[in-house]
Amino acid sequence: DENKAVLIIFSGSxxxxxxIQFEKGIMKxxxxxxxxxxxxxxxxxxxxxxxxxxxxxxxxxxxxxxxYNPKGIFPMFVLxxxxxxxxxxxxxxEAAAPFTDKLKAALASISxx
Length: 113
Known about the structure:
By secondary structure, the protein is α+β, with helices and mostly antiparallel strands. 46% of the residues lie in helices and 20% in strands. The protein has helices at residues 17-27, 30-39, 55-68, 96-112; strands at 5-11, 40-46, 76-80, 86-89. A 4-stranded mixed β-sheet has the order 2-1-3-4, with helices on both faces. The radius of gyration is 14 Å and the shape is globular.
């Protein structure tokens, strides 16, 4: 409805070391949060091992993984434009600003396709 790209974050919130690092270092950064609010819709496809999810949420996450992350890579970031173009953004343990820059570049790339 908002005609924004969707950022799908595939994570293992309670077992994946890099996912936990991303959550603490980037997701909690105020400038990253502002960029997300203004530019994309965020969808977290979480695959925890300790926390129990609803059956509906499990099915949704598995559907997204089958379509966008069939190899089960964690964390994985997939940007999907309103016209269904996709871009994968890698996380290389960078700080919030460089990761946001990669996200901006990916957003510009899929918007031009």
